[in-house]
Amino acid sequence: MEQNASETNSIRVGDLDFPPRKVWMKTYGCQMNYHDSERMLSHLEKLNFTATDDQGEADLVLFNTCAIRDLANQKFYSHLGETKPLIQKKDVIVAAAGCIAQTEGKDLIKKYKQLNFAFGTDVIDNIGEMVYRAYAGDKPFSVTTWDRSENYSIETKITHGSPQAFVNIIKGCDKFCSYCIVPFTRGREKSRRLDEVVKDVKRLVEFSGIQEVTLLGQNVNSYGKDNGESLAQLLGELDKIEGLELVRYTTSHPYDVSDELVAAHGTLKKLANHLHLPVQSGSNTVLQRMLREYSVEHYLGLIEKMRQANPQMVITSDIIAGFPNETEEEHQATLELLKKAKFDFVYAYAYSARKGTKAARGEDVLTDDIRGRRLREVMDVQEDVQAEVRKGMEGKTYRMLVVEKGSFKGETKWTGRTSCNRLVHFTPSDETDYLWHWVDVEVLTTTAFSCQGKLVADFGKNNGRA
Length: 466
Ligand code: SF4
What we know:
The chain is α/β, with parallel strands linked by helices. It has helices at residues 31-45, 70-81, 84-89, 98-111, 127-135, 182-186, 194-208, 231-238, 259-267, 284-290, 296-309, 328-341, 368-391, and strands at residues 3-5, 11-13, 16-18, 21-27, 49-51, 60-65, 93-97, 117-119, 141-143, 164-168, 170-171, 190-191, 212-216, 246-250, 274-276, 314-321, 345-350, 397-408, 411-418, 423-426, 438-446, 451-458. The protein has 3 domains: 3-143, Methylthiotransferase, N-terminal domain (Rossmann fold), CATH 3.40.50.12160; 164-390, pyruvate-formate lyase- activating enzyme, CATH 3.80.30.20; 397-458, CATH 2.40.50. The protein contains 13 helices and 22 strands. Strands 5-4-6-7-8-9 form a 6-stranded parallel β-sheet, sandwiched between helices. The protein has a 5-stranded mixed β-barrel with strand order 18-19-20-22-21. Helix 7 runs parallel beside helix 8 (231-238) and helix 9 (259-267) runs parallel beside helix 11. The radius of gyration is 23 Å and the shape is globular. 41% of the residues are buried. Iron/sulfur cluster binds next to helix 6. Iron/sulfur cluster is lined by residues 173, 175-177, 180, 182-183, 218-219, 253.
């Protein structure tokens, strides 16, 4: 689309003028979705949109939906319903993107008259054209086509001023775990070429001041299989980039963690001391029904190898409580696994059926009450484990990037995130603005959910580099 700036601050695109407008976005779900929202915003800036937190002043209301859990679904439908009074008051375009829009785009358009358009996960980079169509007066429409091109090739877009960036390296998932909707909403695995990612990250470091990147993918350690490349190779190349301080990646599947990747955690200096490795259950029979392709023994062996390769390694995980027909014995096996694995944190959820998945078909004897009770037991056991694991941090010093200033019980505190992905709070002794400084902090006290420390050294915004 051709663009010319006019004297009225409007942007001329094709046959339409785009005056300065506001977009209000609501994102549900995972980091991938948040990153997609940032991408969409960068495209919208070219059509003269700026972001607003106030839905009342929005010209475009955009929902980036998530289909993983029922709760996120329900929230979206309720928030969509709340837009009705807004569109009665002023001329507003309403759109839905993301996983729900991918699978239910046409139905959404039929059912919700306030929606101007819905579009799926593979066409987010075409948002400019869709907004153009809406302003050109097209009838409500949905676009849910898949990108059929052989290569996955993009450039990372940044719309914020922080030194942290998310970088998509692989999209889709080929695993088809029996409870998961992602392969249906995000399609098959497709990786970006290693050279392209390295060039992209170098550009982010050199021109956008990025110092920490998180590599993203639904099954990130499957990266490169389609191109004869690997995540470990990519991490090795990123480790050489001057000015880049820290590299994280998420989310991993235990089946695809290679020996090469374990070794990388022992040798690469910029690779974070953290791995999020969803185990989902501590019972082999449940893991089989989930189609997870590994056993509890394999999983425990894997995290042991990680910890041997890098003794600083911190592991976090996901647990699904109350998988269909889970027996009391299978549930107890999960509680036992938590005690053995000693995770630093666990995202625990009660199972919720996703339409179209294998696990949602067939009978299920569990009630919501049983699921709720099992979820509480998982959280209680993990809380005890977590308190013990965090206690081990006391007296140790951690290098971290300061990410936030806040007030805790009336006291000003700065918060940083360590390489091992823990948030540590410290009280400033002066008026220095520590935001985005690299600092050393000694951890003084911990609980299961919080770590308090004291500042030991301040390296400034570029970790001591000029
Ligand atoms: S590996 Fe993850 S994204 Fe892929 S199907 Fe399994 S749970 Fe879903």
